[in-house]
Amino acid sequence: GNRPTKTESEPGAWSPDGKRIIFSSAQTAGNGFDLWTVNADGTNPAKFFGAAGISESGPVYSPDGKTIAFQLSPINPNGTGCSGGIEGAEIWLINADGTNPRRLTTITNCSLDTQYSWSPDGQRIYYTSSVSTQTCRDEIFSVVANPANPVRVQYTNCYLGVSSQSPSVSPDGTQVVFQNESVTVTLYTMQ
Questions:
Q1: pTM of the entire predicted model
Q2: Cα 177 from Cα 100, distance rounded (Å)
Q3: CA angle, corner 33, sides to 31 and 36, nearest 5?
Q4: Which pLDDT value is given to residue 17?
């Protein structure tokens, strides 16, 4: 039926109203992950979004529950490419009803746009990107959650000479806390 048959899955995310869970699960070897939803009580599992040759993972609901951000990674079937067959990673958005999938960031030189979180008002997404040409591997960016005009804002610029990862936005939206590769947690005040 529609129930995932393979146990390879990634952690999911609750909808803000607590009624649904969205997660990624691999059903076919070599096809990567697809997005699945299930009711909070475990009933009605269903494939939400996915396509052959592409891996979708890391779904996160917007604060209002109307939109889901997720990572999309093209897969090279030969296992070659940027990183073990993955050709990079972009952040995409899709309506919570499964309609209107749209790209928010674009792969550049095998970049990995990952570790994203929504601003409390749902207007921006903060994420880690490996697109940097500096000595750092990862830096923190944000983008307006409007694909008609996705404007990237770079918040860290090889901060302290190390990579910056895992941004999390304060409830009032004025600060971002992130980790750098020396495992130091840093608080950044937005200007």
A1: 0.75
A2: 31
A3: 130
A4: 95
